[in-house]
Design goal:
The protein has 313 residues and is mainly α. Helix content is 71%, strand content 1%. The chain has 14 helices and two strands, in the order αααααβαβαααααααα. A two-stranded antiparallel sheet has the order 1-2. The radius of gyration is 20 Å and the shape is globular.
Length: 313
């Protein structure tokens, strides 16, 4: 059994599955990182991703075009994120309560719309985006198939991670967005429009979260099921904390969760004599352990989730 587990074929398939399972978390995580760096906590990422998943499926199903489905998923995520922005930025409501309410709302809305759409027909299947192998790199032992034989959304993610890091580390505009999350009143006094900047990050939060949900439908599964996000939105929030609010830190944390999820699937596949229910909790248990390990290492923006009223003290 151990020889089978540590074989090159097992490790190659395991790493490829880990990356594939981590990509939706990374899209949600990078969207949440952008929002939280400017002071907005969107616990409603679960609802954002669920909306992206449903509307991507509906768009692809009715149009017969996966790219139309992707655009619909992005729009679905954007609408939900803007709703959170309306509540938390304009109406200055509690961000945690707003996010939780959005999660429950979207669970009901998507379930209702899917029942109307399926009309009692049950299972519906669409095509998925194919993998695109990068010549040469995809043949590298162990890591080639995992990182360089992927769908185009995964390659776009790599670029987004680098661009996000450059934006916050190397540009004055990135520093302005971080200032909004650290000291919004000081930022306002320096001429930065806090609410405008926070609305901008909510746009990116919604689009990227919508892509994360759409990825499950358009790349991984080809179907939509009720509550198919199944906690991935909350895990995306955890990856931001574990990654210490940095793009590449979030990438590593998401990959850890993806690896844990892939491991429990692969162990069940080769018939390890452990209860499948016990294996199923492995990804969440490892996430909790990692969260405990990060306790006391607070690096969150100073004004995160705190409502901002212009001119107040």
């Amino acid at each position: 059994m151990l020889q089978q587990i540590f074989s090159l074929s097992f490790m190659t398939a395991f790493l490829a599955a880990a990356v594939r399972l981590a990509v939706p978390l990374m899209y949600g995580g990078i969207g949440e990182t952008i929002a939280e760096k400017s002071g907005i906590l969107n616990i409603g990422m679960e609802g954002v991703m669920l909306s992206g998943a449903f509307f991507s499926f509906a768009g692809a199903w009715y149009s017969g075009n996966l790219f139309v489905g992707l655009l619909c998923g992005m729009a679905g995520g954007l609408i939900v994120s803007l709703l959170h922005g309306l509540l938390s930025i304009t109406l200055i409501q509690n961000q945690s309560v707003s996010g939780l309410a959005i999660n429950m709302l979207m669970l009901g809305v998507t379930s209702f719309l899917f029942k109307l759409m399926s009309n009692g027909q049950g299972y519906q299947q669409i095509e998925t985006f194919p993998n695109i192998a990068i010549p040469g790199l995809s043949k590298i032992p162990l890591i080639g198939d995992a990182f360089f034989n992927c769908d185009f959304l995964t390659y776009i993610l790599y670029v987004l991670l680098v661009l996000t890091w450059i934006f916050y580390k190397k540009t004055n505009l990135g520093l302005s967005f971080m200032a909004v999350g650290e000291h919004p009143r000081a930022a306002e006094s320096a001429g930065i429009q806090v609410k405008k900047y926070r609305w901008i990050v909510m746009v990116f939060n919604g689009i990227l979260g919508g892509i994360g949900g759409a990825y499950l439908v358009l790349v991984q599964l080809g179907v939509f099921t009720e509550n198919m996000i199944s906690g991935r939105g909350y895990i995306a929030l955890a990856t931001v904390i574990l990654g210490r609010y940095t793009p590449f830190g979030m990438f590593g944390a998401a990959l850890l969760f993806g690896a844990a999820n892939a491991l429990q699937i692969r162990l069940q596949t080769i018939g390890v004599s452990i209860s499948p229910f016990l294996l199923a909790i492995l990804p969440y248990a490892l996430t909790l352990i990692a969260m405990l390990g990060a306790a006391g290492k607070n690096s969150e923006p100073e004004a995160l989730s705190k409502p901002y009223v212009k001119g107040s003290r």
